[in-house]
Amino acid sequence: MVRAAQAVAAKPLELGAKLLCRWRGNEQKPCEVIERKLKTLPDGTPDPSGEWEYYVHYEGLNRRLDEWVSLDRFDLGSHTEEGKMTRNQSTKRKHDHEEHEEEGELDLATLKEHEEATKVKNVSRVVIGNWQMETWYFSPYPKEYSRCDVLYICEFDLNFFIRREQLDRYIKTKCKYFHPPGDEIYRETKEIKGKEYNISVFEVDPTHQRLYCENLCLLAKLFLDHKTLYYDVEPFLFYIICEVDSQGAHMVGYFSKEKVPSLAEGGGEYNLACILTLPCYQRRGYGKLMIAISYELSKREKKLGTPERPISDLGLVSYRSYWVYALLEILSKHRGSISIQELSDMTSFRTEDIVKTLQAFNLIRYFGGQHSILVTPKTLEQHYTNAKPNWIVDGSKLQWQPYPARSNGR
After folding, report:
1. What is the pTM of this model?
2. What are phi and psi of 185, to 5 degrees?
3. Engineering a disulfide at 272: which of 53, 165, 197, 307 sits with its beta carbon 3.0 to 4.6 angstroms away?
4. Whole-angstrom Cα distance, residue 184 to residue 173?
5. How many C-beta atoms surround the C-beta of residue 176 within 10 A?
6. How confident is the model at residue 404 (pLDDT cuts 50, 70, 90)?
7. Annotated catalytic residue: which of 99, 243, 296, 308?
8. How far from 136 is each of 126, 133, 233, 263, 399, CA to CA, in Å?
9. Does the pLDDT value for residue 95 go beyond 70?
């Protein structure tokens, strides 16, 4: 038995091999072997067993579910090169579905180059504050931090370390902050799932805190597939959402926005470049809070706003949910006719985003030679009455002015 195991280990599975792999429980899914490596001990030295580990992509599933597995997870009798979807094909189909015809999708050459460079996660887990999270994607941390099982991150200034004791010593002796290193622009108390939270939003300008913003982008890349700008942070402002307690302000997510917004295709300006809620804080409404703040900033700028494309799959879900709830809130209370332009004026949404949202939820019909908005009781109940409400931002509590006005000293 030992000689047989050594023979298998001596001849590992080929890269590109397609076979069935035990996924969750006893369920088996078709996968492709993307990378392989000799198994190592926790201290990084080679495992005496000489066994191989394999990095696999499950066909039809998002890349965030790619993982390292041992040989015993495979059904070796299922090995085949015929009748299987290649990884590029399955990923392309998955992205076609996720983008849902949103403009700005990456071209195929760029997509292929990006996937090749980032195909294997280099950090398995991160510890930040009281949370430990499994990562989803590759992030270009320095080489000495790559291939580590756990990366320890200071939750206040986002400096990162390989060992827990390094982080603990840094927090005790060198970390100067108990909140993001920027200006607090918004504060409110909010009840979430029956518990009150103190919420603060900080604006961080990379002109003054470049390292923090670069570290933020590195952290974000662990959970965002198509984030490509890691060090070109200067053109942006970063808005950090925090839960605040006696120990400090704990980051739950962030969004970025260009200092001088670019004109968007189809009208309006981009009011959000990148958005992320850390996995441990998801499903609490923070995505809707960040979207709501981005539109509140657009109102201060007296502009129509829209997020930059492409939008991630989770980002698109949040936006569609936010847009349809806001529109139904108006339509449910409005009596008489209302135009797309009037809805745009009331929400600061682009007319194009409004039309696409109405179409996605079958709220627009064509009859009598014209398009009309039609809200059925079922749609109203599903996406408004029984839906999680949008986060309402109190504009009177927002201490913010457009960046060009600050630059000009007005």
Report:
1. 0.80
2. -110, -10
3. 307
4. 25
5. 7
6. confident
7. 308
8. 11, 9, 22, 31, 35
9. no
